[in-house]
Amino acid sequence: MGIGKIKLRSSDMKGYTLLEVLVAVSILAVSSVYIFRSFFSALSAIEMSENRIAVMNAFNNDAAEIKFAVENRALSLPFNKSGEIKRSGTRYKYLVASDKPVDSKQLCRINIDYAWRQSGKTVHEKREIFTLYPADK
Q1: Which pTM was predicted?
Q2: How are strands ordered across the β-sheet holding 90-98?
Q3: Residue 3 lies in a domain
Q4: What does the alpha-carbon distance between residue 100 and residue 110 come to, in Å, rounded to a whole number?
Q5: Residue 33: domain span
Q6: How far is CA 131 from the centre of its chain?
Q7: Cα dist. 104→30, 39, 107, 132 in Å?
Q8: CATH number of the domain residue 87 falls in
Q9: Using CA atoms in the order 51, 53, 54, 55, what is the torsion angle rounded to 10 degrees?
């Protein structure tokens, strides 16, 4: 091989071209964005599940207390109760409301509504329970 002669045979070339490197880096960047997005979506879903579990536990406790109070006439109908609880760093606002008994058998409806902030949005979880209000003696 003499001076000034350039040999361009593929068997003599080693390494990757700039274009191959750019394509590989862009594929890696796009795929990593989707991986991170799915990771953060999973974290958000876990947080929502934890909040719903906390609300359902609080709902079950409230429902049992309210049913017991209504059935033993410790609460007079209609009633409204609201407040706020804090569990695991999250504040949950609640509203419990009842109407007068809805029929002659003294069946009364009780609405329980929980609300909390998550990911910049207010999330509501509403439940409705029914219990018998004892008849006058």
Answers
A1: 0.60
A2: 79-87, 90-98, 107-118, 121-132
A3: no
A4: 10
A5: 18-132
A6: 29
A7: 65, 55, 8, 10
A8: 2.20.130.10
A9: 90
